[in-house]
Amino acid sequence: MKQIKNSTVFLTGTTSGGASLAFSPDGEFLLATERVANNIDAFHVQSDGTLSPIVVNANPAPGTFSIGFSPDGAAIVSETGSAGAVNGSAISSYKVNGNGTLTPVSQSVPTFASGNCWNVLTPDGTKVYVSNSGSDSISGFSIGRNSVITPIGATIVGENPSGSHNVDIAITANGRFLYSINSQSGKIGSFAINQDGTLTDLGQAGNLAKSVGFNGIAAL
User: Fold this and answer.
1) What is the pLDDT of residue 214?
2) 106-151 pLDDT tens trace
3) Where are the domains of the chain?
4) Under CATH, which number does the domain 18-159 receive?
């Protein structure tokens, strides 16, 4: 790896809580979230790899956290909700305009759980799952035409044992399995992804240290 000269850019402040970032599928934009300032920042990726000046999009939904992209270029954003809110988490989709502004498509679709900080899309881009760390559960949504988000079944499609505190989640490249890293139990939750988008609990595995700040997980 070689650093791109003059490529450093800044968010809106040193305490804005930068949380997640993702490139659009066409490589035109880099989006970053600020979980404290509750912004979604857009940077145009220029031909030499540097980034354009920041375009700040204030998110009307509280608790902006992780961000990803659907195959058609819509931004998918997890929202934890207001501090202390019970079952106030949600997920939204946004169209990214050519000037870096965002237009809501599906605004704050509820997860019916709390602590939704992370999300992951299936490889075919038809479904998105969110990890509700405050409720030890996983909510599932279908991504339809124009990236409209609708719940799968009763929305909660998977549950870990009470106290698991599942944080980041990952899906295998073949789209068949979903895994959650359960930071309070020191386990990995395993689920099979059914054709209708529901999940089948395959149990937990592993013997990780508990409560040591585990967050990231990847699956092949």
Assistant:
1) 81
2) 999 999 999 999 999 999 999 999 999 999 999 999 999 999 999 9
3) 18-159
4) 2.130.10.10
